[in-house]
Amino acid sequence: MRRLLVLAVALAVAPGAAQTPAPFDVVSIKPNHTGAEASDTNTSPGRLSLVNVTPLERGIYSLEVIGASKLGRHEGPGEYAMKVEPTGGRIVVRSTRGNIGRLVEILSRYTDRLVFDDTSLTGEFDFTLEWLQDPGADVAGPTLFTALREQLGLRLVSTRRAIPVIVVDHLERPSAN
């Protein structure tokens, strides 16, 4: 699968973004040749930067709560941190003051599907989510689907829905300056 560096794309492509796409004067899409595995999403008014994402139409998951969520609400001080730590075939997500929006971005990366937040959970959460990403690894552990259910009380459900799509109708190579 080819990962790309995407800069300044209309905000409507982000899960949970506004219904009406914001117009952009410039969109830059470049192949990412760094070999880096990590993805990143940064938003600010009038700008969306996506690094190491695949801009393909793909399957969709709905993230839902099973009964009562097992996510721990953040209490007291502490700085936001939501880190993904891949080690030895396992993936560990450690969250302090994390939010469901960022979790959805992470799940989209590791399921290779677009994940939508249908949990109705708001606020900040402290949790650890750990699963076995590489079934060929010589370690034991739950799959992502089992880990979500057992560790967080959440599930991913395959679904269909209309999604925003960006259509590029014309591309030109930039002129030399």
Gyration radius, in Å:
18 Å
In total, the number of strands is: 11
Low-confidence blocks of residues: 1-19
Helix amount: 10-25%
Per DSSP, the total helix count is: 2
Q: Return the average pLDDT rounded to an integer.
A: 80
Share of β-strand residues: 35-45%
SS-derived structural category: mainly beta
- H and E string: EEEEEEEEHEEHE
**Count of structural domains:** 2
Largest sheet: 4 strands, antiparallel
The best one-word shape is globular
Element layout with pairings:
Blueprint: E1 4-7, E2 28-31, E3 40-44, E4 47-53, E5 60-65, E6 72-73, E7 81-87, E8 90-98, H1 100-111, E9 114-117, E10 125-132, H2 144-152, E11 154-159
Parallel strand pairs: 5-9
Antiparallel strand pairs: 1-2, 1-4, 3-4, 5-11, 6-10, 7-8, 8-10
Describe the structure.
With about 180 residues, the chain is mostly beta strands. It folds into two domains: about 5-55, no CATH class; about 60-160, no CATH class. The protein is built from two helices and eleven strands. It has helices at about 100-110, 145-150, and strands at about 5, 30, 40-45, 45-55, 60-65, 70-75, 80-85, 90-100, 115, 125-130, 155-160. Strands 2-1-4-3 form a four-stranded antiparallel sheet, with no helix packed on it. The chain has a four-stranded antiparallel sheet with strand order 6-10-8-7. The longest helix has 12 residues, at about 100-110. The chain starts with a strand and ends in an 18-residue tail after the last strand. The model is unreliable at about 1-20 (pLDDT under 50).
